[in-house]
């Protein structure tokens, strides 16, 4: 999660000008120094809580794209394999949402980019305008339709997620999604609608899902989240005490105010409440709230 005021890591140089060089993918695939991140669905090849990078020549039958270069200047490709593919030797498959919290900051950045681009390569093979199979361009970062001439790029959908506290700062409001197992709670979230500001989206989502009005909405950071192609924008806000919280009864089955002690216990794995895992921005918003003096 990127945090306002903190230094922004550039662990992955995306090398945008290099994408336009003719034959760059073929050149990099033939280079023995190039390394490849292998993706199957939303799972990555990992070993010992790190991305397992393999030579390009060791992967067959994949969709390819140029991710960029690591801090040492090594070229990184993503190879998207089919659902039946076995992981490269010495590694295992791990979904991003599971392994993301264990990766280093640099690996997490690469992993999120790889999965996001990989899903687009698979899901957007055909031109949405005319249905023709579109050709890859810009080393996998765009597609060109040979029939109607349209150029298509990976899509990113903004979504807001917010940690709601009461006026005292001693209680945190979380919700249980109707599709989740019993006892699992998280922050409130939803997609930004057309013509809507981020702050308005926060207020609308919280009102729709929990029935409360909010104030003091403040941005806390962002996280790429390729489920399916989101950019999660994290906020904190204060609930207006004039309205009691209540679940919408459809998407949200239950809302509940938690004390600091209850949140601390849940983060330690004690009790019956389950909170989001460390790979998610929701986890980081909750941890930040717990560490903020009331």
Write the SSE topology.
Elements: H1 16-19, H2 24-30, E1 35-40, E2 43-47, E3 50-51, E4 53-55, E5 63-69, E6 75-80, E7 92-95, H3 96-99, H4 105-123, E8 135-137, E9 142-144, E10 151-152, E11 157-165, E12 171-177, E13 188-191, H5 198-210, E14 214-225, E15 230-239, E16 252-259, H6 260-267, H7 281-290
Helix fraction by DSSP (H/I, runs of at least 4): 10-25%
- Class inferred from helices and paired strands: alpha+beta
Identify low-pLDDT runs. none
> For the terminal residues, how far apart are their CA atoms?
23 Å
Shape: globular
Counted beta strands? 16
- What's the main sheet like? 7 strands, mixed
SSE arrangement, N to C: HHEEEEEEEHHEEEEEEHEEEHH
Count of helical regions: 7
What would your notes on this structure say?
The protein is of the alpha+beta class. The chain has seven helices and 16 strands. It has helices at residues 16-19, 24-30, 96-99, 105-123, 198-210, 260-267, 281-290; strands at residues 35-40, 43-47, 50-51, 53-55, 63-69, 75-80, 92-95, 135-137, 142-144, 151-152, 157-165, 171-177, 188-191, 214-225, 230-239, 252-259. Strands 1, 2, 3, 4, 5, 6 and 7 form a seven-stranded mixed beta sheet that branches. It starts with 15 loop residues before the first helix and ends with a helix.
Structure summarized in a few sentences:
The chain has 294 residues and is α+β, with helices and mostly antiparallel strands. Helix content is 22%, strand content 31%. It is globular, with a radius of gyration of 21 Å.
């Amino acid at each position: 999660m990127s945090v306002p005021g903190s230094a922004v890591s550039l662990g992955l140089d995306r090398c945008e000008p290099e994408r336009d060089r003719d034959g760059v993918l073929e050149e990099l695939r033939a280079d023995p120094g190039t390394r490849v991140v292998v993706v199957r669905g939303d799972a990555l090849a990992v070993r010992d809580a790190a991305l397992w990078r393999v030579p390009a020549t060791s992967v067959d039958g994949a969709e390819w794209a140029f991710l960029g270069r690591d801090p040492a200047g090594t070229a990184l490709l993503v190879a998207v394999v089919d659902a039946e593919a076995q992981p490269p030797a010495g590694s295992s498959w791990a979904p991003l949402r599971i392994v993301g919290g264990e990766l280093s900051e640099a690996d997490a950045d690469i992993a999120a980019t790889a999965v996001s681009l990989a899903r687009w390569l698979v899901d957007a093979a055909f031109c949405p305008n005319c249905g023709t199979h579109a050709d890859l361009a810009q080393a996998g970062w765009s597609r060109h339709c040979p029939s109607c001439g349209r150029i298509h790029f990976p899509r990113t959908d903004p979504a807001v997620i917010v940690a709601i506290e009461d006026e005292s700062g001693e209680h945190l409001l979380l919700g249980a999604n109707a599709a989740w197992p019993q006892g699992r709670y998280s922050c409130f979230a939803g997609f930004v609608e057309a013509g809507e500001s981020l702050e308005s989206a926060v207020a609308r989502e919280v009102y729709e899902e929990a029935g409360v009005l909010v104030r003091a909405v403040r941005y806390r950071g962002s996280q790429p989240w390729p489920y399916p192609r989101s950019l999660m924008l994290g906020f904190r806000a204060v609930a207006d005490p004039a309205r009691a919280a209540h679940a919408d009864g459809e998407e949200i089955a239950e809302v509940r105010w938690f004390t600091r002690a209850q949140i601390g216990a849940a983060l330690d794995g004690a009790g019956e409440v389950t909170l989001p895992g460390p790979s998610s921005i929701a986890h980081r918003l909750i941890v930040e709230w717990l560490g903020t003096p009331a």
